[in-house]
Amino acid sequence: MVDVVLLWFAALPDTSQAAIIASLVTLGGAIVAAIAGFVGAYVTHRGNEGRLKKQLAYDRQQRRIERRAEVVAELYSKLVELRRAASDFVRWYSSVDEGSKKRYLEQLWRAADAFDGHFGRNRIYIDRAICNSIDTFGDALSKATSMLAGFVRDAGTIELPDEQVFKEWEKALDILERDVPAISSALETSFRALLDMEAEA
Question: In terms of residue numbers, what domain contains 186?
Answer without folding.
Answer: 68-200
